[in-house]
Amino acid sequence: MTWNIHGTIGFNPGFDLAGVIALILRWRPDVIALQEVDSRRPPEGEDAFALLQDALGQHGIPAHSIASADGHYGQILISSFPIINSEIHDISAPEREPRRAIRAELGTAAGPVRVIATHLGLSIRERREQAQLLLALAGPHDMTTVVLGDFNDWFFVGSVRAVLARVLPGRSRFRTFPSFLPLLRLDRIYCRPCCAVRDMYTDPNARSLSDHLPVIADLAVNQS
Description:
Largest sheet: 6 strands, mixed
Distance between the termini: 23 Å
Low-confidence stretches: none
Mean pLDDT: 91
Order of helices and strands: EHEHEEEEEHEHEEEE
C-alpha cells in the first residue's frame, strides 16, 4: 500500500491520524509506504512516525526530509516482514525540496523482496533525474521488486512512468489526486515481474482524510 496522507489534514482539519490508521488496518497490508508524515503539528508530545509504526507493523524505516526543533517531516516504510537490510538515499535536486528514497530488502516466507519507497519532486527536470536514480536502486532482476510512492508525475513529457514501466512493467493506473475528484495518477505501485500482480485497488473512503487516495496491490512473490 502507498498513500500520501498529507499530514492527515487537507479535508481533515481535525488531524485524524487515528482515522488514517483505521483505514489502513482495514486493508491489512504487509508493506506500507506513507508520504507527507508530519510530526511538527499538534497534538503536542506525539510523534506521528512512532504512532504509525506502533500501530501498523513490526518493522519500520522513517526517512526525514525535513528536521526541525518541533519535529520531523517525510515518509516511512512499514513492514510486517523482517527487514534484512535497508538504506535511505538522498535524491534531492539542488535548490529544490529535499527528497528521499528508502530501499529495503524484506524477508518473506516465499523469498526476499526488494522495495523502494519514495516521494518525487515537483519539476519535470528533477523527476527525470530521480527516475534514473530509482532504476539504479531497483538493481538487477534477481528478486521480486516493488517501487511505490507519490511520483508527482502528471505530464507525459519527461514522464517517470515511461522510464520505470520499461523495467517494472506491473503498475497501477488509478487516478488518485485530488481525492474528491481524482484526475491525476500521482500515486503508483510499480513491480517486476509483471506476473507478480494479482490485483490492484484504491479506496475512495480516504477522501475525507487526505487529498490523495491510496493505492493497494496484491502481489505474489516469485522465488528467486
